[in-house]
Structure formats: structure tokens, C-alpha cells
Amino acid sequence: MKRSAASHCAAILLAGGILVSLGGAAVLAQTPTDQPPVAPQVVPTSPAPTVGVAPTAPQFRPTPVPLPVVIEAGSGRLIQLPAPAASVMAADPRIARVQPASPTSLFVMAVAPGRTTIIATADDGSPVAEYDITVRPGRGVLAPQPPPPGPLEQIFGRDRREAEPLRPAAVESAIRRSHRGMAGVRVTTAGPNVLVLNGTVANAADAHRAETIARSFAGDDREVINNLELLSSIQVNVRVRVAEISRDITRGLGFNWQAFGRAGEFVLGLRTGQSAGQVIDAIFRPGLDPSLSVAPSILGLGVTGNRYDINAIIDALAQDRLISILAEPNLTAQSGETASFLAGGEFPVPVSGATSSGAVTVSIEFKQFGVSLAFVPTVLGPDRLNLRIRPEVSELSETGAVNLPLAGGVVRIPGLTVRRAETTVELGSGQSFAIAGLLQRRTAQSDQGIIGLAEIPVLGALFRSDRFQRGETELVIIVTPYLVRPVSDPRQLAAPTDGFRPAVDLDRLLFQRQIARGVAMPPLRGRPDAGFILE
């Protein structure tokens, strides 16, 4: 009797596909989904049956219960099968790949975090074993390999298996190693099945990444509570102190002589510090010229005789000027946003232009002056921030002023004296630093006199004018940033006008009071508030 080869067909229905095994080979039929399907990995463990050999009758095998296996990403695991297998399939080879080591053992290689299924079938297509593979990132603790199911378990299955206990230290270590900005994440437990994420992260993407890693450790039957705080929502208050003291000392001493001698028709005149026309005019109009006495520091003396006139103008100037500037602007901004501040004013500057027809037009532009501040804070951590700041102090000055002819007249445009600093620093909340300092001393001395006479020792001082000027400037800019939060109770904030009562006319005129009589000023409550509460 001639025997013919028989084909064997066994089908296993999986989530997302149907596995069909034909003579040791397998084909997967995927159901259509929204994403392109991933072909499962099918590996035969024994060759196909030879033609002419009748297959053995299929043996009864109970449906195996999926056994959980936990593997760390990048590692492998050797699994012992309860019976020889003809083919093995991995549902998602992107998570775990399988390689037969022998008919009764498999080598599973973890590729990426996730969950997949590995199924081993016998030569007749009946299932031998099924494994629920969980791949965890980082150094997770591997679950112990369950023993092979016994005869009763193969028939009735296992009612429940104890879950692996949560290990927050392993979860926290995996989260911190996943990204550089995860150092502020802390993981705790709120019960046997709840993981709690606390701490701070830079943005929402980092918070989602930390929660995803925690859920891969917790599994589907456990809860993850995300209490992470975003650093981008924290506000920064910057206090800038600008302190400047400028002192100018001017000393001047000069002699201006008008000497005229008469000898008949001959007239001899001497005058210093004036032009030739003024000298000639003074010769024919001898005497003290009142037009020279235009300054309060000028003193005129004169002696007049029948044949001579001697007049002296003594210029003695002593001037001291002390200027002190102290500004302390405060400004609050959100992390990553720009904030600016100006306490001063604007002055107009005419700008001429021309139209297409050639007509001249004049427009007005305004230039700012005063104390200004602009900064961009970036919070780096719970107590660390990066600050790009640009403080500036400017004032109107006659130095550098220009006269602009305009509409038949002259417009004088003042100059600006500017002290400006711009820098980027990194520091902690409440720490202060000086970003600019100016210690300047300038000295100027000018001499003016008659050539020859001014160089005479001792007496030469009567024929020259000396002017000495010295200036000293000290400027310091100190910056202190704070991490702040809004105030929920408005009563915690104080204004400078709280409790102020102006004096009535009688108290102000007779007693020079600025506050109403009988009204006491409220006591100070420590450092004045600036619209925020320090952490």
C-alpha cells in the first residue's frame, strides 16, 4: 500500500493576527489597522516532515496559560519549554526577538521597552507554551522565572499570580538616566499599587517622558500619580541697585591787567586775555571795561592818575559739585520671557527728511533717558537660574550737545551721559553680584598768560591765569534675583501710601508739618514688600 504525504494545518488566533503553521513553517495573517503591520518573528525549531512519512496522530494538549517574563532592555533570557516545540513566534520583534537554543529551550533577547507575546507550538500545531514578555528600561529587577506548569495547572490554569512589588528606587534611577534634566525627579509609593512622581522638570515633554517610564515599570494594573512641577511656570523677580557718587572740584585764579601810560601824544596800553580789537578799543577808551565783569567770581580794581590808568581784573573761582544717584528698580517676569522698565523721560529730537518731490520735512523722534532695566530670566533648577540683564543709567548733559539750524532758528539738542552694562550670568535665588563698577578720576589744568612775563618766578603769577579741575566718579550696579510666587492674600502686601494722612493748611504753614497731627505712622513690618513673597 502506497503512502502519500499529508499536510498539517494548525491555527492560533492572536491579538492583531492569525498564525498558520504548515509543516514547520508559519504564516501570519494580519487584520487591517491604522498603522503598517509589524511582521512577527517565526522561527522553526525542527525541519519539515519528509514526503512519504505518515505523520503521527495529534496528541491532546491543554491550552497553556500565558506565563509572565520580565527582562531588562538590552539583555537576554533562556527559557525552558515544558515540551519540544516545532516553531516559535514573537508577536512584535521590535520589543523582543526569539532564537531557539534547542527543541526544549528558547533564548529571548529584549530589544526595547514594551510588552509582547511569544508562542511555541508542537509539530502538529498544538500550543506548547505561551509567554507574556515585559521589557523594562534601565536596570529593573527581573521577575523570577516561574516553574513549568504542572498537570493540573495545564488543565485548569492558574487562577492568579502575585504581582512583582514596586521598587521606587529602580524607577527613579531609570528616569534620571533617561535625560539630563531629570535630576530633580523623586519617586515614592502611596500604597502597594501606586507610584507617585514628585519634583521639578524643565518642561511638559520631560514630565511626559518621566510618566511613561514610570508606567512601564508599574504595568497596566497599577496607578501612576504625576505631581511633577514645571520650571517654566516659575517667576523671577530682579532687584537692581544703581549707586553713583560724582564729585567735581574747580579752582581758578587769574589776573587781567589794563595798563595805559600817557606821554604827550603817545599812548601805551597792555591788556591780557583779550583780542586785538578789544585792546585797541581799550587804548582809546581807557578805564575799567564794565563788560568784563559778567561773572560773580570776577573782581575789578583800578588806579587812575594824570598820566596813567591801571586796572586789574581778578578772577577767583572756587566751585564744588556733589551728585549722588541711587535707583533700585524691581521687576518680575516669567521664566523665558523679556521684561523691561524705565524710570525717567523722553526728550524730542527733530529729524529732517525729504519727500519724493524734494520738499524738506521735519519729524520728531523721542530718545529715552533715566534708569532703565531689561532682562530675560531662565530657570535651570529649583534654586538655580540663568539671567541675561541690561541695566542703564542716563542723564541729559551739555557735553556733546549740538545746535541744529531749523526753520530760520537754532535748536539745541542736548547730549546724553550713559552708563550701561549688559551681561549673562548664572546664580542661585537670593544671591547678589556686581555686574558693573566704575571708579574714575580725571584731572585737568590749563594756564593762560603773557609770554615772557608769565614765566617770571613769583611775579609771573600776576600775568597768567590758572584753572584746575578734578572729577571723581564711583558707580556700582548690584543685581539680586529671586524665585517668587504670586500672593494669594492681598493684605500681605503694603504700599508706601498706606496710613498716610496729609497735614491741613494750618499745620503745614505754621508748624511745617507734612503729616496730619495726631495720626501716628504705622509701624514698619520688616523689609518693604515689592509685590512678592520670597521662598
TrEMBL record:
GO terms for biological process: protein secretion. PROSITE patterns: BON. Residues 162-232 form the BON domain. One of its GO terms (cellular component) is type II protein secretion system complex. Keywords: Signal. Residues 1-29 form the signal peptide. Belongs to the bacterial secretin family. This is Fimbriae assembly protein.
